[in-house]
Write a structure and sequence with these properties.
This protein is an alpha+beta fold and 135 residues long. Helix content is 50%, strand content 20%. A hairpin with a 6-residue loop joins strand 3 (65-73) and strand 4. The chain is globular. The N and C termini lie far apart (67 Å). 21% of the residues are buried.
Length: 135
Amino acid sequence: MLLWLVVAAVSVWILQTVLGLWQFKKFSNHVRDLRSFGRVAIGRAKGGFMSGVIVLLVIDDYCRIIKGEIMEGRTVFAGFKEFNVLNGLTLFELSDELCKSLNIGFRRSVAVMSAKQDYDNYQIMQANSSNSNDE
């Protein structure tokens, strides 16, 4: 009996690992495809008991959002859908108040603001890196 429990636990763990790797590969390929349109800002809101949210915002050279996609769900089978409510705006315009006025929803709003913050952090890191190289 105990042996079957151990075998079942190991099997479930292996299945979870394989499905997680499959989801990551699918995500990476999708982001690579979106990069053909421009830079991609990625934001997330962790799930826990609620479904997690990942937002991909494709931006042009002026940080204007030209395409948005969103993935919501609790399983590895969740896929990306169009999320064009922010198209035409710049990353700099994004705020909690704007998300609220557009009725985006709390979890989506957290993911959108995460994308903005991650992009801001990337820009700061790039600036610091170029300043270090100049010295």
